[in-house]
């Protein structure tokens, strides 16, 4: 039996990320979904003028597809959350609120199905009516379209049927928690798309997706998207809209994003560098938005090329999470060893069990595995500033214990494709997280984060059981078993838990920020 050396990471580091470190607004981290419904108080009191263009600087290296079915980056998610209205939004205090839906979902007695009823008179931006058939069309497309990134998100949904022109019935694999429902239908799986536009545009739909909202996509390049007000004024909440246009620009370097915020070229920026926080707090024209995130930064491992679990374990023992937290994220992204948030009521010592930094044990495990050192490893990553720093640290740490880690910087889209194709041994990724802990495991076949195709029947059975039980005691035990299996198989290594650190000009009002770091600006505006 493989020797297990595990310990527990405490919650002291989490408290740091939870502390209000800024002036301006601080949002609650307990909420879920992609789009919080309430407007920050600091913005709500400002008078918004009609017209103008809002410019948002997004963190990343590329946009990727903005087709809701194919979208797989936080950048595209932020664009879509402003372009498209979902079935539901979630408030900052975790309450589900109807958007395109007319009312809360109605669950049956055992929560294994729910009915959703739409508002009257809804239209897509091309004028096509939004009815139950369109919602069902979108569900079918998300489940069956080649390359769909939503199929995994919808793995707990077994069927959707049209009850009447305004109502759909959703069937689940088992009892479904409100958090699990929210994770699916407030996000990209909850954006109905126009069947008319899909059938007309075919594979080109992603170049100008048609959904429900107040804006239409006008131009798109590899790093910029511009959306403009729908001239047909088809949005049901047209009176809430103010801007003429919104531009999204992707900038990999957080210092460049901050410089552009200071100069006024950007009105809002995503993911401020911790080293720029003091300068932002000293600028009376800017506000800092900070709150704990739900997700994590991880190192995924190719279990085919790194086939010996002892070698993978040695690699984990070589990496000091605290150094990464302190050096790259100024301790604002606390170290973590688990998919499970340390503060979750469903957590346990078993769910937080950790293979800790231990260079001596790493060398011993490589020797026990009979590995010829240095062990060659290719680490691929999207070349953002933070991921580049992590890669350099991992390379240096690995060298100390017997690994020769070659770095392969690239863009997000290429990195994802190479990881799926098995063209690297390691890759750095970031999962933005969801409210339901089961949705953060992401290690069953078809799961969005399971890009390497990890497939262990024991893991699949545990995830299946979690989908079928709503008993917190049983869930807690199952989550502990999941973490135990992760520490045995090591398909990935959790590095740090995320926090959201955004910046905005004080002339901006009505922008809302999702718990995963997304930016929702459909109803935003500039102040007079």
Automatic annotation (TrEMBL):
The protein's name in its UniProt record: ABC transporter substrate-binding protein
Gene3D superfamilies for the chain: Dipeptide-binding Protein, Domain 1, Dipeptide-binding Protein, Domain 3, Periplasmic binding protein-like II
Family listed: Belongs to the bacterial solute-binding protein 5 family.
Domain Solute-binding protein family intervals: 95-438
Lipid bilayer topology: Lipid-anchor
Entry keywords, A to Z: Signal
SUPFAM superfamilies: Periplasmic binding protein-like II
UniProt keyword annotation of Ion transport present: no
A Pfam family the protein falls into: SBP_bac_5
PANTHER family hit by this protein: D,D-DIPEPTIDE-BINDING PERIPLASMIC PROTEIN DDPA-RELATED (PTHR30290:SF38), PERIPLASMIC BINDING COMPONENT OF ABC TRANSPORTER (PTHR30290)
Record's subcellular location: Cell membrane
High-level lineage: Bacteria, Bacillati, Actinomycetota, Actinomycetes, Micrococcales
Keyword Signal listed: yes
Coiled coil: none
Family annotation (InterPro entries): Peptide/Ni-bd (IPR030678), SBP_5 (IPR039424), SBP_5_CS (IPR023765), SBP_5_dom (IPR000914)
